[in-house]
Amino acid sequence: MFWIRGFLLLFLGSSTGLQGEVPSECFTVNGADYRGAQNHTSPDGRGQPCLYWNQTQKHAYNTAKYPNGEWGLGSHNACRNPDGDVQPWCYVLETEEGIYWKYCDIPSCHMPGYIGCFLDSGNPPALSGSSGTSSKLTIQVCIRYCRKRGYKFAGVEAGCACFCGSEGDLRWARPAGAVECDQVCFGKASELCGGDGRIGVYDVSVGACQGNFSAPSGVIYSPDFPDDYGPDSNCSWVLRPPGSSAVELRFQIFEIRDPNDRLELQDGHSRRLLAQFDGHHRPGPGLLLPTDVLVLSFRSDPLLQAQGFAVAYRATPAAMMSKKSFKTRLEENQRLPESSESRSRLLGEV
Ligand SMILES: [Ca+2]
Predict the structure, then answer these.
(1) Which pLDDT belongs to residue 223?
(2) Are residues 179 and 241 in the same domain?
(3) Between residues 159 and 18, the one the model is more confident about
């Protein structure tokens, strides 16, 4: 275990403030975006109580050093992951053995699309399809490699190896502890690519450039997530949750570099533009869109990229909504610093 507290790794540029305001699920690989209230260490959340981040001045991460809510630190003792470790953790009262921090094992804290960490003896391999190694391996490099070859799963191991596999493989896979997949990807220091004899497995739909979503809820990631989106991206996703009259979106990550990289939300029937966001016009945390077919389109220009977005969607049944509430919530959730003219253009006649 070479992860040393104080090793500063900026995984997320953004930080949200206080617990309770946003969902507790994690949308990054390592729970860097966890803002839930779990404040005990493993096992099973019944371990030691965490110390308050405003009472840990002798350690590297505390609110005196990071007073602006960086990484979700604040006057609370909930688990966070400010340094890009494998999962959220917290400081604890130092033991005689000198242990002063511990992991928090938060069950909901896994990026959707991340299947888990599994043992891989290599004989037979945990994922039995195509494989390769790369000194530039990232999670998305492996996902793309396996997606192109028609596999359902992509597995990263030992920082540099990529394996592809199908449902049948996973039936026999033996789960390993989440923290055992702790090796940095050779191609990206902020991502973890399995471990020694441990394979981190992903669904290849994460970071795809297109998709049709018909489940009542789900998560859409920008192209190549968790890597940065590429130059000249042109991707779109169609949401058609059954029995809904509106779609609620919650942006968990929105890292768009400039105004030339743009996410558009359109009504799938009329193609009317419902909202658009870019590097200068960020969405609020929640959005309600009055359509049962929503099309998301993302385009980027050749210059300057960033991580992109992770947006969770949820279908809202017809009975729960009125026209008035659509408008109110859209207005509340759009943060458009432009004129009121362009604002009404975007909102249309809701
Ligand atoms: Ca750009």
Answers:
(1) 97
(2) no
(3) 159
* Mean pLDDT, residues 173-192 taken together: 91
pLDDT exceeds cutoff 70 at 18: no
Q: How confident is the model at residue 177 (pLDDT cuts 50, 70, 90)?
A: confident
Q: Note whether 329 and 234 are same-domain residues.
A: yes
| Whole-number pLDDT of residue 49 | 94
216 Cα–ligand 1 center, Å: 32
191 phi/psi in degrees, rounded to 5: -120, 155
How many angstroms is it from 11 CA to the middle of ligand 1?
19
Res. 24 pLDDT band, cuts 50 70 90: low
Residue 278 CA to ligand 1 center (angstroms) comes to 10
Instruction: Identify whether residues 183 and 122 lie together within a single domain.
Output: yes
List Cβ neighbours of 13 (8 Å cut-off, separation of 6 or more): 255, 306, 307
Rounded to the nearest whole angstrom, what is the distance from the C-alpha of residue 132 to the centroid of ligand 1?
Answer: 31
Q: What is the mean pLDDT of residues 312-316?
A: 92
Give me ligand 1 centre to Cα 299, in Å.
9
Domain limits at 142? 114-203
Q: Could you please report the per-residue DSSP string of 234-247?
A: EEEEEE--TTEEEE
For residue 314, the CA-to-ligand 1 centroid distance in Å is 29
Cα(260) to ligand 1 centroid in Å equals: 5
Question: For position 312, which CATH number holds?
Answer: 2.60.120.290
Phi-psi region of 150 (alpha: psi -120 to 50; beta: other; left: phi over 0): left
Scored b (16 or more CB within 10 A) or e, 198-213 reads: bbbbbbbbbbbbeeeb
Instruction: State whether 185 and 241 are in the same domain.
Output: no
The domain total for the chain is: 3
Residues 343 and 219 in one domain: yes
Distance of CA 253 from the midpoint of ligand 1 (Å): 17
